[in-house]
Amino acid sequence: MTGLGRRGKYGLIHTDRGDTLVFHLGMSGKWRIDPQDLLPHDHLLIETEEGTRLALNDPRRFGSVDLVPTDEVEEWGPVGELGPEPTQLDPEWLRERLRGRSAPIKTLLLDQRIVAGLGNIYVCEALHRARIGPRRAAGRLSRDSIGRLVAAIGEVIAEAVEAGGSTLRDFARPDGELGYFSKRFAVYDREGRACACGGKVRRIVQGGRSTFYCPKCQR
Ligand SMILES: [Zn+2]
User: Fold this and answer.
1) How close is the Cα of 34 to the center of ligand 1, in Å?
2) The pTM is what?
3) Suppose 26 and one of 2, 33, 63, 177 were both cysteines; which one would form an S-S bond, judging by CB atoms 3.0 to 4.6 Å apart?
4) Within a 13 Å sphere around the CA of 216, how many CA atoms are in the beta-carbon half?
């Protein structure tokens, strides 16, 4: 192992053989570091030269592991199709990308080809912070709205990283503790509760995923 990286929701483990292990944890996968014993759902075991063992445990098997030549990773399969990282989004680029699209902005923000690695929680929170209704047609957002949206995405991600990651039922940091960002959600998973503006958070389903938003302050 010569280094670690990440692209979107793919983790990268570089080796000195010129190959990179590209993994996706799916919904429930996690690495167990120096496990005492192997468990039923440990699908892959890696041992480094220093003797550290890493077991990839994934009870639901939604994850993936591929070995790819390191100099081809950026163009490889699903990684090659990824849009920019959320922290490197350029408002003008995004505006160009959304031009003419009639799909709801919420749905397109979950498309990894437009923004890489932005999950449902962050999309809901960023749209709320930018005061943009999730059903708005993406191609009809003003330059001003897109500017607010890109800023909001950057802020939400930065705060989540600062707080130690988000939390879902199965989410755990490598030390097993849950992340803390959940305590700061403004709309996510808060259906029927009060928004800071005095409105009431509503839940709808878009593209098979829950959207939480405030109809009063998001237009
Ligand atoms: Zn509100």
Assistant:
1) 46
2) 0.80
3) 63
4) 11
